[in-house]
Design a protein that fits this description.
By secondary structure, the protein is mainly beta. It is built from nine helices and 51 strands. This is DUF4982 domain-containing protein.
């Protein structure tokens, strides 16, 4: 590939990989013939999986890439960086073994400078093994794991060319609290902030070099805000030097979830008057703290953390998502009203965290793990994972906590000692010195929680009194509810696990569970915040059905509970790149019923008025009823992990039906209470007489209309319409990007028919393919396909057909995405 002679160049290395899903002897050799292998683009999954897969592909697969270098790169350093590979990777260059990497969630880099010749053909070969391996986090076998890790080269690969005098990569350098560029802040206020920058420079010339660092802070428009120039230092041959600089910023734009302002830090190595290296780092200036008395504070202001959890997977393709797809997920979670996301239970794609930085989603980044802590190699990899995830993401403003406890790995698990987790806490603080590093983790059952030392100890969702942190041993620390709203309502048969086509009553019950739990959480004065389980429905190895407790289903379509959370956002806050401001939503299909009904409205307005066929039912202020018990159990057993399958089914059915017979549970569903601790209570209308037609609600703020929502009684299916979910990013013609296309079965009034479940057949014309099922059965009136772009940009036409209604078509275009290897 021809290029201009810049001092540093990074090229996307995702195209034209050869792939085979079997173990092949000799495939690492340069002259091995891969002519019959499939040609794929990264990110890539080893096998397209079914929608409800539990045991996804496990085994050996190979990737090979042929490439040549340009003469202009002679004398430079050449690296290949893998963002991740699942989960044991062996990498060869021209038949030479370069690395064996264990762990599927963090990056690794190989230096191929001495392995290549110019003008010749070269081959990188990667052998991946994602079979169960107790030495590699998460450790537990797939069949007992409550999520799925899939496989493949499922993230990006990058090709880097630098001068021999260059800024290092923090993970590759392997320096505690060092390597690369490390940015910290001091004395942050609205009037000024001190930006401390440390830059690690490596000299791989055969002679010493004299160099200085010029660091410039650029604003959002690329204008210079401040600059600093170091003294000239001699960097010995083969040696390294860390330059430390300080910039003082007057009236800085501070990063906050409501105003996520990002600066760019431009770093130049200047040697003998010319630029030897240049790198840009996106940063957000902010300061944070956690305390029992003050809660969570950012830039001097208290803020309640209102979050959710997210697994990184998508239907059919597993974890092999494009950068744009990760952004679209982050945007949907932001628009749902969340200001925080827990990356359950592992570091996720850089692209997702890029989106969190841009959109104002705070995050906790967990070390990979789940109910497992074997001594030996496993724990050694955990230690290194903590270092690597901090080195990768320490400059991100969105990351406010580092979870170092291995999810749900309580005492009783082999190796899960206080000593080990205390060491994990200390490793994190060694990697990020100062007062802006906050470790978090489970304290349940720890013999010496104060000794373990987590800065932000977790509460636990099935701890009825929510007494964590333990008052007698952690009296000065607030707690964080890392998961709530799902398992405590019935285990694997939780009434929070509701598909979108479950019907109005079950969707309302799901919303009630999360409302009831959130209100309980917010009533604990020492609570720093919480994260619902979960943001998006996901697969899991331990169960053949999706975990359907998400506010969004696996196709990223919202359930009623999505709008409950949306109502918790502040109406006066308007975000630049996410839907925001006032909202109102009727959680009702307004279908035929024989008795007066309860109508639940979610809104962040201060008053709503409800209309049936144009006639006002009345205006209401937010609910203000008392807190109540969730329900009355008369069976004598608790709702927890240890319910039998029969008991779980019984519990779920009883909750939905509101039974009071012996052995059943009565749930006081949307009783007008359990809301006083919420940012915004729902509006519950009772005794509304049903009349087919239109149900409308108007939301008002200060007496002025601010939002409106209309629901119409669905009639028979009449039309089919197509809708594309772009969520702020065009479809990129890179061979990996994809969008969801929704075929909505509507009546003559344009209302989606929630009872429609017909199959929809899709046909496509243009540079794109449909991945996964086709035809697709509609769920609650909507059939969804995953449409993936080819590598050539162009116009795409998608046609949808189903019985009884007219076919329809929609057009879109995929766009070019820049140079790729």
């Amino acid at each position: 590939m021809k290029h201009s002679n810049h001092c540093r160049r990074t090229v996307n290395f995702n195209r034209n990989w050869k792939f085979i899903r079997e173990d092949i002897s000799g495939a690492e050799q340069k002259r091995f013939s891969d002519e019959g292998w499939e040609t794929v683009c990264l990110p890539h999954t080893p096998r397209i999986e079914s929608l409800h897969v539990d045991m996804h592909f496990q085994g050996i697969c190979w990737y090979r890439k042929h490439f040549a270098l340009d003469e202009a790169d002679k004398g430079k350093k050449i690296f290949v960086e893998f963002e991740a590979a699942m989960h044991e990777a062996s990498v060869w260059v021209n038949g030479k073994l370069k690395l064996n990497h264990k762990g599927g969630y963090l990056p690794f880099t190989i230096d191929i400078t001495d392995d290549v010749d110019f003008g010749a053909d070269h081959v990188i070969a990667v052998r991946l093994d994602n079979r169960n391996n107790g030495s590699i986090p998460p450790g537990k076998p797939l069949e007992s794991l409550d999520f799925s890790y899939f496989g493949g080269l499922y993230r990006n690969v990058h090709f880097h060319v630098t001068e021999k005098l260059h800024v290092t990569d923090a993970i590759y350098a392997g320096e505690p609290a060092g390597g690369g560029i490390f940015v910290k802040y001091a004395d942050v206020s609205q009037s000024s902030a001190t930006v401390e920058v440390q830059t690690h420079v490596l000299n791989e010339h055969e002679t010493a070099k004299k160099a200085k660092i010029v660091t410039t802070l650029l604003d959002k428009q690329g204008r210079q805000v401040e600059t600093a120039e170091s003294s000239v230092e001699a960097v010995s041959a083969g040696g390294a030097h860390t330059f430390v600089q300080t910039l003082t910023i007057t009236k800085p734009q501070l990063w906050h979830p409501d105003t996520p302002y990002l600066y760019t830090l431009q770093t130049k190595i200047v040697e003998d008057g010319h630029t030897a290296d240049e790198i840009r780092t996106r940063i957000g200036i902010r300061t944070i703290s956690f305390s029992k008395e003050g809660g969570f504070v950012i830039n001097g202001d208290s803020l309640v953390i209102r979050g959710t959890n997210r697994h990184q997977q998508f239907p059919y393709i597993g974890n092999a998502a494009s950068d744009n797809a990760h952004y679209r997920d982050a945007k949907k979670l932001k628009e749902a009203g969340f200001n925080f996301v827990r990356l359950g239970h592992y570091p996720q794609a850089p692209a997702f965290l890029d989106a969190c930085d841009e959109l104002g989603l705070m995050a906790v980044e967990p070390v990979p793990g789940w109910q497992y802590c074997e001594e030996g190699e496993f724990q050694n990899i955990v230690r290194q994972n903590i270092r690597d995830m901090i080195r990768r993401d320490r400059n991100r403003p969105c990351v406010i906590m580092w979870e170092v406890s291995l999810n749900e790995t309580y005492p009783g698990r082999k190796g899960a000692t206080d000593e080990f987790f205390h060491e994990c806490h200390l490793i994190a603080h060694e990697e990020y010195p100062g007062d802006q590093i906050f470790t978090s983790g489970d304290t349940m059952g720890r013999n010496k929680p104060a000794y373990v030392g987590y800065d932000v100890p977790y509460t636990l969702w099935n701890d009825e009194t929510l007494s964590r942190p333990l008052e007698e041993v952690l009296p000065d620390k607030g707690g964080f509810d890392r998961e709530y709203g799902d398992y405590e309502f019935g285990g694997h048969e939780s009434t929070s696990r509701v598909p979108r086509d479950a019907g109005e009553q079950k969707l309302l019950l799901q919303a009630w569970n999360y409302q009831w739990s959130l209100n309980r959480n917010r009533g604990n004065k020492w609570s720093l915040g919480d994260a619902s389980w979960v943001g998006i429905d996901h697969n899991r190895g331990c169960y053949p059905r999706l975990a359907e407790c998400g506010v969004l289903d696996t196709f990223r379509l919202p359930k009623f509970v999505y709008y409950f959370y949306q109502s918790q956002r502040r109406a006066e806050i308007v975000h630049e790149h996410a839907e925001s401001g006032p909202m109102v939503y009727i959680a009702n299909y307004w279908m035929e019923r024989t008795t007066p009904t309860k109508v639940v409205v979610f809104s962040n307005c201060d008053e709503v008025e409800l209309f049936v066929n144009g006639k006002s039912v009345g205006a209401r202020k937010p609910d203000q009823g008392p807190d109540t018990e969730y329900g009355e159990r008369v069976t004598g057993y608790e709702v927890d992990y240890w319910l039998t399958d029969e008991e779980q089914h019984k519990w779920k059915d009883a909750c939905v039906q509101g039974k009071t017979d012996a052995g059943d549970m009565k749930v006081f569903l949307h009783d007008g209470g359990n809301c006083r601790n919420l940012a915004q209570a729902p509006f519950t209308f009772t005794g509304v007489a049903y009349a087919p037609g239109e149900l409308k609600v108007i939301g008002r703020i200060g007496g002025k209309e601010a939002a409106e929502h209309v629901v119409r009684t669905p009639l028979e299916p009449d039309t089919l319409s197509l809708r594309i979910d772009m969520s702020g990013k065009e479809l990129s013609a890179d061979g990996a990007d994809f969008v969801f296309v929704y075929a909505e079965i509507k009546d003559a009034n344009g209302t989606v028919v929630p009872s429609a479940c017909d199959e929809v057949l899709f046909d496509i014309d243009g540079p794109a393919v449909i991945v996964g099922e086709n035809p697709v059965r509609a769920e609650a009136g909507i059939a969804t396909v995953l449409l993936q772009a080819r590598e050539t940009p162009g116009n795409i036409t998608l046609i949808a057909l189903t019985k009884g209604v007219r076919p329809t078509a929609i057009k879109l275009a995929s766009v070019g995405c820049g140079a790729k290897f």
